[in-house]
Amino acid sequence: MIHTRRTFLKQFSGTAGLILMGSRAQADVSNGQDHSKSFGVLVDTTLCVGCRSCEQACNEVNTDLPRKPLAHFKALSILDEKRRMDYSTYTVVNRYYDIQEAEQKPVFAKFQCMHCLRPACKSACIVGAFSSEATGAVQYDSWKCIGCRYCMAACPFQVPAYEYRNAFTPKVRKCTFCQPRISAGELPACVQACPMEVMTFGPREELLREARAKLAAFPERYVQHIYGENEVGGTSWLYLASVPFEQIGLPKLGYHPTPGYTEPIQHAIFKYFLPPLGLYSLLGGLMWFFNKRKNKTPDCKGIHAA
Amino acid sequence: MSAHDTAAPVDTPFFTRGVMLLCAVMVTGIGFGLYRMLFSLAAVTNLNDQYPLGLWIGIDVASGVALAAGGFTTGALVYIFNREQFHAIIRPALLTAMFGYTFVAIGLLFDLGRWYNVWHPVIPFMWQGNSVLFEVGICVVIYLNVLYIEFVPIVTERFIGRVNLPGFLARLNDPVDLALRFMDYFLGKIMFLFIIAGVVLSCLHQSSLGTLMVIAPYKMHPLYFSYLSPLFFLLSAMSVGFPMVIFESMLAARSFGRKPEMQVLTPLARYVPWLLGIYIALKIGDMLYRGTYVYLFENTLPVGMFWLEFGLLTVLPFFLFLSPDVRRSPGWLFTAALMYICGVILNRSTVFFIAYQPVYGENAYIPAVGEFALTIGLIAALMLVYRIFVTLFPVLPLKEAEHGGH
Questions:
Q1: How far apart are CA A152 and CA A124, in angstroms?
Q2: What is the mean pLDDT of chain A?
Q3: pTM exceeds cut of 0.95
Q4: Which residues in chain B touch residue A248, judged by CB atoms under 8 angstroms apart?
């Protein structure tokens, strides 16, 4: 069951609650392993015309972001600026050009948080301010946040932005996947607003089937790759494009989840606390040995004045 | 009477021209720090969404922790390996580690967006075992407490038999004195537990600082991305421990008009080439194994930094420390130590904001004046606090002239 803006409300709203309740109850997605039931969005960049309706809808729905005037979203010249998300925006659309074609056909790409299945931000966070929801959304809790910004350094897509100008309560800013809306059975605001049906919201597994079907049906139209299917362990947001993904601002990444680089090191060092205890014992043994040899008890009389 | 018995408060006048200068630098830094607290990070720093970690993380925090390694390396040398001849430096080393870590914590507060939440990592329901930073944070917090405990005997020694509380509190003189004596006695019996714990905790967080950027393999320059990064951080911290002790000891000697304690520092410097040699060998081995030497002649900033921090400020001091003549000469020893200290500072800075190359790095990060001012101001403050402490407490060895009289 695949949902674009028009078919979604009819078919989906009734069942969404049930699906979500069910998956929320059983799924411990803390390790991001069980994503068979999570949602995603398939972005077909070949359909995008760069109207920025998604940006506008995002700004309207996320009322805690700074309000931007309508004129801002109507200005299309900004598309060539190669913008990134910042403290005031969860999503941006940029215009790139297909360098292979003689007439330089424009290609538009929308960016937002990719909602990784194995999020680096979540693994990096010192206080667990990021969580993986059953919906597939990666959520941020500013109440826990200490503002160290390690999540920003860790993110392979470089998505989280920071409220550097906020002196007392700065937050990390990134797309929420419209978690409140999708939990309530609604579409993410950008998906709903898109007039070209660039984005398709639905269970990630079904989106992957749909994407493969498209690649097979229109081989001349697409690069034969679903960006996000396996990149850094898979992302909830998936992309199709007519040009190599690096050309439209999506970084070339391996398939190994980035927390998979650090977590094994961490867990090896702390396996049942044996390595630290082992080192402690070893040093204790050495201390005993060296002090015994010199016929002295190890009582650290140096700090402690005799 | 053993060597450590002869530590005593310094009796030189506190204020000198140098101290006045330090005060001015400190006040300027604190000014910028307060400005950041009141008017946000953007008001003082050049940090941006591409470069979230900057000078304050690279120097105040990461280099600060590395340079405070003198505490645990000297602790291990003197107490675990029982090298009594180095007793004279244990207190200065310990004091620097204690203040070093304290200032790391203070420096971190200026960098944290929500500094008032800094205590969150110690709350069990926010523990995050997958986070490298969590491990660093917890180990540093525990180690800081261990350092304070290790420092207690210096305080008790200063006040035992000399407790003289003002006014009506005077009646508490005897109980306080008794409490100090008890603490002194009790801590003396169990101090070795804390000494070992300090070494273990240091090994854990010094190495984990190196694991931090391993989570960003696509952003790190290949010369600075390795699974051995934690080991590199640990070994370079262990290597810089003694050079830092040497540097401080000679700086303090100069400042207090004493002779440098070459009889201790020269033998101490003997250990440096061993540690540094292992670090250099591993680093080069890793480079050969991963084939990253192909980047060595690339014309980019990270590669330039590599030649500077590794080639010039790590390998060269290694050869200097190797030479007995250098180790015996105060000037050369000081130079070699200072060179490697700069090498470590540049290494940590490179890892956190130079070899770190954001995916969309359109805005370059060049630290702002205010960032430099706070960093330098904190270093000045650290030196002032150190001076105050050695004036009040028995940390530094007695002057040689007085030594004979005891």
A1: 9
A2: 87
A3: no
A4: none
In chain A, the N- to C-terminal Cα span, in Å, equals 80
Q: Which helix (H) or strand (E) holds B104?
A: helix B87-111
Q: Dmax over Cα atoms in chain B, in whole Å?
A: 74
What are the sequence ranges of the domains in chain B?
46-367
Characterize the bridge pairing of strands A237-240 and A39-44.
parallel
Q: Give the residue among B321, B132, B271 at the shortest CA–CA distance from A148.
A: B132
Contacts of B121 in chain A (CB under 8 A): 126-127, 146
ipTM score of the complex? 0.92
Sheet with A199-203: list strands edge to edge: A199-203, A39-44, A237-240
The CATH number of A5-261, from 3.30.70.20, 3.40.50.970, 3.40.5.10, 3.40.50.10490, is: 3.30.70.20
Report CA B392 to chain centroid distance, whole Å. 22
Tens digit of pLDDT for each residue in B216-241? 999 999 999 999 999 999 999 999 99
Tell me if B89 sits within 8 A of B264, measured CB to CB: yes
What would the pLDDT profile of A170-213 be if each residue is shown by its tens digit?
Answer: 999 999 999 999 999 999 999 999 999 999 999 999 999 999 99
HEC profile for B1-49? CCHHHHECCCCCCCCCHHHHHHHHHHHHHHHHHHHHHHHCHHHHCCCCC
More confidently predicted of B176 and A101: B176
Q: Is A290 exposed, middle or buried (0-12, 13-18, 19+ CB in 10 A)?
A: middle
CA angle A77, A83, A87 (to 5 degrees): 120
Domain boundaries, chain A: 5-261, 270-306
Residue of A nearest to B137 (CA): A126
Q: How far apart are CA B142 and CA B252, in angstroms?
A: 29
Helix (H, G, I), strand (E, B) or coil at B347: helix
pLDDT at A292 (0 to 100):
83
* pLDDT-above-70 percentage for chain A: 83
- Give the closest-approach CA distance of B26 to chain A in angstroms: 22
Name which of A158, A286, A290 is nearest B50 (Cβ-Cβ). Answer: A158
Mean pLDDT, rounded, for A13-32: 40
